[in-house]
């Protein structure tokens, strides 16, 4: 690290990290991997290192990031239908990377968050400045990639490397021009963070870079996008007069190109065929024409390597092949001689490469704040507030679903405080329980990265950690059952949760083993309508799942963390109500009978979070009926479900009676 770190700020960093053995070892391994896999070495004092600790950022584990689809959609394996996807209105690669890292590591420092929110508020109020900044940001190339090109050199230089060096200097020239354009609209902003960004954009070292480049590179050189444009740009990038041999080689290149076009004009006059000169990096210059231009004739034999694509013919001539070879020879000489001049220029830039690191960070931060501002201008978002012990969201909405789907989203309130930290949420499948859990977590993340949130009002407690246990699918790759995954993730939560954490758990203890337990019972009820005496269990029983869920809930209740827990176990809603900080909520639904003789009912989902416990029984059967399951099956299913409920209630009453008898017997003794 002493060899590679830039001189700016190195003493303070090197003083504090000698005891960070694991961090240093990982860094050294990464550097060695990059050098060996990319066949490149880093130049001395060319890399900016930063030592960051977990303090100041919320901890989000990999499972939670996946469950909440922060950066990757589980079903489609892309970032469009994710939190990153809907927030990513950035214009630069640096801004997108910063946004991604912030989503995965939200801030926990309230002052820093407030500063970002102030920036967004100021940018929202200056439409003209906002549009000018947005327009200028779109002209930036990837500064981080540009920095890498200056600090990495190949172990074996090639002509390709010489071409790239010229490209990088031209890219830097373009970037410096874009930085200058960006300073103008940022200059009048008053927020402290925005003023810091302006100061970094006007660093005197950037002007030094511009002077060095202007002394070597032609003033008229701009970024080109076409292949032939890029080649000509590299060829004539260095000013005339810097090297006499370079000027001769470029003149040869220019004359050869003129000869190529002269030959083509001669072919047109001689053969009476309309010819078009094409170019690509593989073939160089070649010819093309339409089949219609031949008017039924064949191509003259002088044209070789004929390829037909639809009605277009491409071909070349021996003379054109020779001229392409001469062009390439001239270009090789030009690149090698230009590279020697560019190398001296690059050396002067590397001495102050730290200025580019700072600019990259400044542009990335500004770009991310602009993305947050853009969201405020197109959606009904509100600035979040923060308190020490309360989570209050009025009419909050799921940010991803609201943006991606045209149907109106049903907003819901959320409230948590010192006296109601644990929330049990019940309701039928598809009623919106999981969506509500994810909404709470996503809004918290948005608030803690300094973004406005979709709600009428929002106040958050700063969370130090975010945990989730949401069942998506079994992990086939790891050959793990639902139960095993649940227990691993739950154990991690219990070991790491603190009073300042946010935990969302979706139906703990509901795994596949529940069905295994019920199946033998259903068969016995069908065969014999009496209470079964023995039930064969082939997996973890439903009562094991209930017991584990109950015990986990009790442990989490004592942590005082803010916890939102969905379940189908009605026993939890009653058993845990003895704790004063437990609140019961449910997603409201309504059973509506269809008109006609069928007598079928359908489930109407209101997606509204309401206080209390869901009261409807057998809503699974009702859901199956509304989805078209034959009526005779749903009627039979309802009868079985009612019978099982009666058996369970009778068993409970007998158990209570047995306890009373046992107590009386003990008293009689």
Automatic annotation (TrEMBL):
- Tell me which stretches of the chain form a coiled coil: none
Keyword ATP-binding in record: yes
DNA mismatch repair proteins mutS family domain spans which residues? 420-642
* GO MF annotation terms: ATP binding; ATP-dependent DNA damage sensor activity; mismatched DNA binding
Query: Please, which domain of life does this record's source organism belong to?
Result: Eukaryota
> Record's InterPro entries?
DNA_mismatch_repair_Msh2 (IPR011184), DNA_mismatch_repair_MutS_C (IPR000432), DNA_mismatch_repair_MutS_clamp (IPR007861), DNA_mismatch_repair_MutS_core (IPR007696), DNA_mismatch_repair_MutS_sf (IPR036187), MutS (IPR045076), P-loop_NTPase (IPR027417)
Query: What biological processes does GO assign it?
Result: mismatch repair; reciprocal meiotic recombination
Family the entry assigns = Belongs to the DNA mismatch repair MutS family.
Protein's name according to its UniProt entry: MutS protein msh4
Q: Which organism is it from?
A: Lunasporangiospora selenospora
């Amino acid at each position: 690290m002493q060899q590679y770190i830039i001189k700016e700020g190195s003493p303070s960093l090197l003083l504090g990290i000698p005891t960070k053995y694991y961090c240093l070892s990982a860094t050294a391994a990464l550097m060695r991997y990059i050098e060996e896999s990319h066949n490149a070495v880093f130049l001395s004092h060319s890399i900016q290192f930063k030592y960051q600790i977990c303090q100041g950022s919320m901890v989000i584990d990999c499972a939670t990031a996946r469950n909440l689809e922060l950066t990757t959609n589980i079903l489609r394996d892309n970032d469009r239908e994710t939190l990153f996807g809907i927030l990513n209105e950035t214009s630069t690669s640096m801004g997108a990377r910063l946004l991604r890292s912030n989503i995965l590591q939200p801030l926990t420092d309230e002052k820093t968050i407030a500063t970002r929110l102030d920036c967004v508020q100021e940018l929202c109020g200056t439409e003209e400045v906002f549009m000018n900044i947005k327009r200028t940001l779109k002209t930036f190339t990837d500064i981080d990639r540009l920095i890498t090109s200056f600090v990495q050199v190949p172990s074996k230089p090639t002509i390709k490397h010489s071409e790239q060096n010229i490209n990088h200097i031209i890219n830097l020239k373009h970037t410096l021009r874009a930085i200058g354009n960006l300073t103008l609209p940022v200059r009048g902003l008053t927020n402290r963070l925005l003023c810091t960004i302006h100061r970094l954009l006007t660093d005197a070292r950037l002007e030094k870079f511009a002077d060095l480049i202007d002394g070597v590179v032609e003033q008229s050189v701009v970024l080109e996008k076409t292949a032939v444009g890029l080649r000509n740009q590299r060829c004539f990038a260095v000013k005339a007069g810097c090297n006499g041999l370079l000027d001769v080689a470029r003149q040869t290149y220019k004359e050869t190109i003129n000869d190529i076009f002269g030959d083509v004009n001669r072919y047109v006059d001689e053969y009476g065929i309309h010819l078009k000169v094409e170019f690509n990096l593989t073939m160089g210059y070649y010819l093309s024409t339409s089949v219609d231009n031949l008017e039924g004739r064949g191509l003259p034999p002088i044209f070789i390597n004929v390829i037909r694509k639809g009605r277009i013919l491409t071909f070349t001539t021996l003379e054109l092949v020779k001229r392409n070879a001469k062009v390439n020879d001239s270009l090789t000489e030009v690149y090698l001689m230009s590279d020697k001049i560019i190398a001296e220029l690059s050396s002067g830039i590397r001495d102050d490469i730290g200025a580019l690191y700072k600019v990259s960070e400044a542009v990335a931060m500004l770009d991310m704040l602009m993305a947050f501002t853009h969201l405020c201008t197109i959606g009904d978002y509100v600035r979040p507030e923060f308190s020490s012990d309360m989570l209050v969201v009025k009419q909050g909405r799921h940010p991803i679903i609201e943006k991606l789907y045209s149907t109106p989203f049903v907003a819901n309130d959320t409230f948590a405080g010192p006296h109601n930290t644990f929330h049990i949420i019940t309701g039928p499948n598809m009623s919106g329980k999981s969506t509500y859990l994810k909404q709470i977590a996503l809004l918290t993340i948005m608030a803690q990265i300094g973004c406005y949130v979709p709600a009428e009002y929002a106040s958050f407690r700063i969370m130090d950690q975010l945990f989730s246990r949401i069942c998506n699918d079994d992990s086939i790759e790891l050959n793990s059952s639902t139960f095993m995954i649940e227990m691993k993730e739950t154990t991690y939560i219990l070991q790491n949760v603190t009073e300042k954490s946010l935990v969302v758990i979706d139906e703990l203890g509901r795994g596949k083993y529940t069905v295994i337990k019920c199946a033998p019972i259903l068969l016995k009820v069908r065969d014999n309508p009496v209470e079964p005496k023995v039930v064969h269990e082939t997996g973890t029983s439903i009562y094991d799942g209930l017991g584990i869920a109950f015990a986990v809930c009790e442990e989490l209740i004592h942590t005082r963390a803010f916890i939102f827990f969905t379940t189908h176990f009605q026993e939890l809603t009653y058993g845990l109500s003895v704790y004063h900080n437990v609140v019961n909520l449910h997603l409201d639904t309504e059973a509506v009978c269809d008109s006609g003789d069928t007598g079928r009912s359908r489930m109407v989902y209101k997606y509204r979070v309401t206080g209390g416990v869901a009261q409807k029984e057998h809503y699974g059967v009702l859901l199956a009926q509304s989805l078209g399951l034959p009526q005779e099956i749903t009627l039979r299913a309802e009868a079985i479900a009612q019978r099982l409920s009666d058996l369970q209630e009778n068993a409970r009453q007998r158990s209570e009676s047995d306890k009373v008898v046992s107590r009386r017997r003990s008293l009689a003794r």
